[in-house]
Amino acid sequence: MTVEISEADAERHRRKMEKRKALMDRRVAERQHEKGLLMVHTGPGKGKSTAALGLMLRAAGHGFRIGFIQFIKGAWATGEQVALERFDDLIDHYTMGEGFTWETQDKARDIAAASRAWDKAREIMADPRYRLLVLDEINLALRYDYLDIDEVVATLVSRRPDLHVLVTGRNAKQPLIDAADLVTEFQNVKHPFNAGIKAQAGIEF
Fold first, then answer.
1. Separation of alpha carbons 40 and 8, rounded Å
2. What is the per-residue pLDDT across 90-118, written as a single tens digit (0 to 9) for each?
3. CATH 3.40.50.300 fits 37-195, yes or no
4. Using CA atoms, how far apart are residues 165 and 99, in angstroms rounded to an integer?
5. What is the pTM of this model?
6. Helix, strand or coil for residue 109?
7. Phi, psi of 166, rounded to the nearest 5 degrees
8. Using one digit for the tens of pLDDT, what is the confidence trace for 149-194?
9. Residues 116-144 as b or e (16 or more Cβ within 10 Å = b)
10. For residue 81, which of 92, 72, 66 has the smallest C-alpha distance?
11. Which of 69, 66, 70 is nearest to 90 (CA)?
């Protein structure tokens, strides 16, 4: 079905868009500074890691070398593990967690796994070949105090200026939010799990 509009409506729309374009062109022209961004995906809604994978795909399209470290996930076989093998010339993927905390039920083991993942993150931050580093679910490791929040934030803030870093996971701590350039909170409006639908391949993992 095609919506019909009058000539007057079309003209009003044209004038409105003309003003908006002028405003946006001016705002774009005023912003010339570039820097490596510290980005946070947090909140109770689904999609934080999924959005991170989309950002990685975009960065790979520009030829960026990417480090992708999964702090919690590790026990499940996931679709991204298979897909990322096709980008092994650009994306280095490290699955360093041992599964969700309610699965491991071993705090000492979880702390050791988080420490190994953080050591790998610092190694990548020191390597000038990388342009993007994704620290998937590190917010959970910080929430449970598996890592020291002050040391993590200080390291991220003092990283080399051309490196973009994205951290994901619900319950991001305030010092990390304060230090970030971009924070997106994912809200849970509706989720199929609450309706009795199980996690499905290709969507959740």
1. 45
2. 999 999 876 555 555 678 888 999 999 99
3. yes
4. 23
5. 0.86
6. helix
7. -120, 125
8. 999 999 999 999 999 999 999 999 999 999 999 999 999 999 888 8
9. ebbebbeebbeeeebbbbbbbbbbbbbbe
10. 92
11. 66
